[in-house]
Design brief:
Distance between the termini: 39 Å
Oligomer: single chain
Number of helices: 19
Mean pLDDT: 96
Helix content: 40-55%
Bound molecules: nicotinamide-adenine-dinucleotide
Shape: elongated
Number of strands: 13
Low-confidence stretches: none
């Protein structure tokens, strides 16, 4: 395949060199003439393991060339891959200056070309970039409509500097963001020799997975560093503790707890986060990230309250009160906090939770509820049907399968605020649906 790679920095040089090594015919393009001259001479413009040999070989074999001429690059290739920088702007947003400049140039060159042309975004750009910025700009500049001699793909790069060539050949997956109905056959062919799962998804998903990945990697590092600093003050060999921590592939290093949804609660998580923070305070260890966990959790409760409030002052029913489904443990339940917040703001609230029998609550559980919602008994109803008869707004915290069925059967014109990502609710007709994070 004939591919032009715009931007021959870290990503472009690696992508270009590796694509050439897969047998493609690659033309590197950059605004920096010195980088173009280096590449054209078979020398790598970046320092990176294996890349010098790879580039030297590809240039010697005639599979890798370089130019500063956009029009020539578009005319001589079928696919243009964009790998220009997207640094932080002064306000922290992604600077799209280089991307927009190069997209405009490529579009103008496509306007002067006969055959179809595909543009592939390799740079890291925010979700929505394809549909809101790049495609409109490409269509304007090229005078073509997407799908009609003009194709656009989002194809984020997951390589790490230092092991970039190895990562190129063994990515976690190949992610292809496409226009609805496009099967991405062209890009599948481009990456055919790479042995990795291919996911063809809408543009916004492809764009966001890259953002999610980097934010999560940063979060993991901050967690490990803060936790390590605290532990070391208590004589703990933190790397040894972390080694064991990482051995738990069920809850720690796993998809567990990585589903967007509602706040956590219960008798362990909030308590132990607070304890860990108090350990940090006692030894004056800065732990700003850990310190934001509980405020972050409260922000999600507030988001649910705001979702209710945005529908006006109507009777509300809350389905699920215990901190999770199937228990009557109300201690630090975020649903109790939400109920408390609604009552405090004067909402006419009823609550259904099959597992919570207020009269039977004992000990710390009883004391907690007497302190937080003293008249809870009066608010409880005994069936999903009764909850639906009361609330025009129904907040679904959690519900077992039978109660979900009853809810689905009884919903009729309600506003549903879904905190549990119930698939059947998302697709139900005749209701006003709102998800907490979707
Ligand atoms: N560096 C990484 O490890 C890495 C990994 C994955 C994704 N990314 C993303 O890939 C993108 C590129 O990152 P990088 O580290 O390779 O950047 P870089 O700064 O090393 O390279 C960008 C190149 O683009 C060139 N350029 C700028 N405007 C241009 C134009 N109009 N036409 C042609 N070339 C132009 C620059 O001269 C430069 O050589 C960024 O969006 C980055 O976030 C980087």
């Amino acid at each position: 395949m004939r591919v032009s790679v715009f931007g021959i920095g870290y990503v472009g040089a690696v992508s270009g060199g590796c694509l050439a090594s897969l047998g493609h015919d690659v033309l590197g393009v950059d605004v920096a003439p010195e980088k173009v001259a280096m590449l054209a001479a078979g020398r790598s413009p970046i320092v990176e393991a294996e890349i010098a040999e790879l580039i030297a070989d590809a240039v010697a074999g005639g599979r890798l060339r370089a130019t500063t001429d956009t029009a020539q690059a578009v005319a001589e290739t079928d696919v243009s891959m964009i790998a220009v920088g997207t640094p932080s702007a002064a306000d922290g947003s992604t600077s799209m200056l280089a991307v927009e400049a190069v997209v405009g140039d490529i579009g103008a060159a496509i306007a002067r070309k006969q055959g179809a042309h595909s543009v592939v975004m390799r740079s890291t750009v925010p979700p929505g970039t394809a549909e809101e910025r790049v495609i409109p700009l490409l269509e304007r500049a090229s005078g073509r409509r997407l799908g009609q001699g003009l194709h656009y793909y989002s194809n984020p790069e997951f390589l790490r500097e230092g092991t970039a060539v190895r990562d190129f050949h063994a990515p976690p997956f190949t992610l292809l963001g496409v226009q609805d109905g496009d099967d991405a056959a062209l890009l599948r062919a481009l990456y055919a020799p790479i042995d990795a799962p291919v996911h063809v998804v809408p543009y916004r998903i492809a764009e966001s997975v890259k953002f999610l990945s980097n934010a999560y990697h940063a979060l993991k590092l901050a967690f490990a560093n803060e936790a390590g600093a605290i532990l070391s003050e208590y004589g703990v060999d933190a790397p040894a503790a972390f080694k064991l921590f990482c051995e738990d592939r069920t809850l720690n290093i796993s998809p567990a707890y990585l589903r967007p949804g509602f706040a956590f609660g219960g008798s362990c998580l909030p308590k132990d986060v607070r304890s860990f923070l108090s350990l940090a305070r006692h030894k004056s260890v800065a732990a700003p990230m850990l310190g934001q966990i509980l405020p972050s959790n409260s922000a999600i409760v507030e988001r649910a309250f705001e979702a209710v409030a945005s529908h006006g002052r109507q009777p509300v029913s809350l389905i699920g009160l215990a901190f999770k489904q199937g228990t009557d443990d109300l201690r630090e339940s975020p649903f109790v906090t939400l109920a408390e917040r609604l009552i405090g703001r004067g909402y006419d609230l009823r609550i259904f939770d099959r597992f919570v029998n207020v009269a039977a609550l004992l000990g710390a559980n009883r004391a907690y509820i007497d302190r937080e919602i003293p008249h809870l008994e009066r608010l409880m109803v005994d069936s999903p049907g009764a909850a639906l008869r009361h609330g025009r707004i129904v907040v679904v915290g959690h519900a077992g399968a039978a109660d979900r069925q009853a809810l689905l059967a009884g919903l009729d014109g309600h506003v549903v605020i879904d905190l549990a990502n119930v698939e059947a609710l998302r697709t139900a007709g005749g209701i006003t649906y709102r998800g907490i994070c979707w």
